[in-house]
Amino acid sequence: MLTTILRQLSQYTPLHDWFIGLSSRNVAPVLVALALGLGLLLRCTMRKASQNAWGLPLPPGPPHMPLVGNLFQMPQVDPWIVYNDWAKKYSTNTFSEHISSRDITYLEVLGQRIVILNSVKSITNILEKKAVNTSERLWMPVFDLLKLDWSFPFMNYTLFWKAHRKHFHQHLGPMQMEIYRPIIEDQTIKYLRALVKNPHDFCLQTRSWLGLTFMRLSYGINDAQWNENLIVKAQAVHQGFSEAAIAGHYLVNSIPLLRHVPAWVPGAGWRKRLEAAGELSREVSRVPFKQAKEQVTHPSYEERATIARNVAAIGYIAGADTTLSALYGLIIALAMHPEVMAKAQNEMDTSIGTDRLPQPEDYERLLFVQAVVKESTRWHTVGPFALLHVSKKDEHSCRILERFPDPMSFKPERYFKGGKHNKELLDPEFGIFGYGRQMCPGRLLAKDIILAHFAMCMISLFNIKPGRDEHGKEIPLEYKVASEVICTPAPYQVEVRPRSANDAALIG
Ligand code: HEM
């Protein structure tokens, strides 16, 4: 039995061939070796886990620690490269005669079938046309400990999920953007003023601006301290979920029985951390809604309380880090391509002048700025694999690649042909926000923040350049991603300064 489990688990490690030869007689020394290895591994990951990719301290509290860290994780190669190789090796055409074999990769891991969709055609056929069958979610054992039953991105395709979706649309549809703009604008102005005074903390300030904006939008409370306290807790829940959702991060996801290991058992510290995060998750999903309801009138409070509070609570958790990652992608793209920045600034100066701040209405006219944002969301894809879709019947899950010529280059010009919109090219928006019935319901808000507020303000008011070291020498920028559930550019340093004194004065 033990040897079988070890052989199965070893599929994820470079030791697979060795484990195949394992017999029940030599299993004891292997277990001792594994225990020692595990101890070492936990020590290493513990040090790493005290900071996130951007070097920002993680919020206090749990759960920053995987049980079996990197042992079962994919090798440190960009996952899309691995999936592309798999597409060549393991493609199949079992599912439909209309889809070619390179469109789909079919794998079986620990008895679980995984289907990777490699093309727009297979995604449309499977996740959109057959959405009734392919819109379930994967519930992991660790989610029970994290008490994520309120979190609707993990709900199956049920009436309860539909009620959440409807509520989300009612409050984040195109008409509602007008209601939210004053809040976004107020927070944006505060952020830009702070940035002019202190351009060094660009990354932290951008994060804080988005966090406060999302909390204000979710609960309607304009109290920075209240919102900040809540952000710290929501961030801990988000971190817990992000780690839990990475395949192989928690052994309990592969061996659900481990859920029942009591927290006092030596080595079960992971359970304590998950349980503490679970308590925070309950708190975040209930308490702020109750407090806010006592303080403000917010349109959503009139609705069914459970759904309204679940939707409010997920706004920050699903929206803030995804949007932040997209902004970090845009910023590094601009800093690495001064010619693109100059062309976008020129378009803004000629279309709206230099004597006022850009307004959301302006962006319809700014075709090149729009192309810059489009290209940055393609070049730096925040969720390259969306969230897993699970099928009810024997069908499928996830997604990937459609070809753009020279895909690794940042070229907003690719969206134009003969001076006009290039209709031959796939709109990168296909895919960025997911597929079918579970396509991201926050996409209008995300686009509003990214384009109508952030991109226009940054491009028209600031110059963004590579950062400098203590000798004043430019630090070369390199785009790499720290790939997890949400892909974030690896930390980089940029210099963000107003283009002129006049620009700084416009912010007040
Ligand atoms: C650039 C920013 C964003 C990106 C790239 C993004 C991307 C995604 C993706 C890929 C999915 C999975 C869709 C699928 O399963 O096929 C998703 C789902 C979701 N997103 Fe977003 N998102 C962003 C911003 C937001 C914002 C601002 C909010 C909330 C205000 C939000 C709320 C949600 C929710 C609630 C779901 C789950 C939907 C469901 O399961 O029915 N997202 N998002």
Features:
Cytochrome p450, two-stranded antiparallel sheet, 8 strands, disordered N terminus, binds protoporphyrin IX containing FE
Written account of the structure:
The protein starts with a helix and ends with a helix. The chain is 51% helix and 6% strand. A hairpin with a 5-residue loop joins strand 6 and strand 7. Helix 12 crosses helix 13. The chain is globular, with a radius of gyration of 24 Å. The protein has a single domain, classed as Orthogonal Bundle (Cytochrome p450). It is mainly α. The strands form 4 sheets. A two-stranded antiparallel sheet has the order 1-2. A two-stranded antiparallel sheet has the order 3-4. Protoporphyrin IX containing FE binds next to helix 13 and helix 17. Its cofactor is heme.
Task: State the major sheet.
Answer: 2 strands, antiparallel
Total domain units? 1
Report the strand count.
Answer: 8
Please give the CATH class.
Answer: Mainly Alpha
The overall pLDDT, averaged over residues, is: 77
Number of helices: 18
CATH topology: Cytochrome p450
Task: Give the second-level CATH assignment, the architecture.
Answer: Orthogonal Bundle
Based on secondary structure, the structural category is mainly alpha
Q: Identify low-pLDDT runs.
A: 1-28, 30-75, 93-98, 395-401
Strand order of the largest sheet: 1-2
The H-and-E topology, N to C, reads as: HHHHEEHHHHHHHHHHHEEHHEEEEH
Estimated helix fraction = 40-55%
Morphology call: globular
Strand content: 5-15%
Task: List ligands, each type once.
Answer: protoporphyrin IX containing FE
CA-based gyration radius: 24 Å
Report the span from N to C terminus.
Answer: 70 Å
Give the CATH H-level superfamily.
Answer: Cytochrome P450
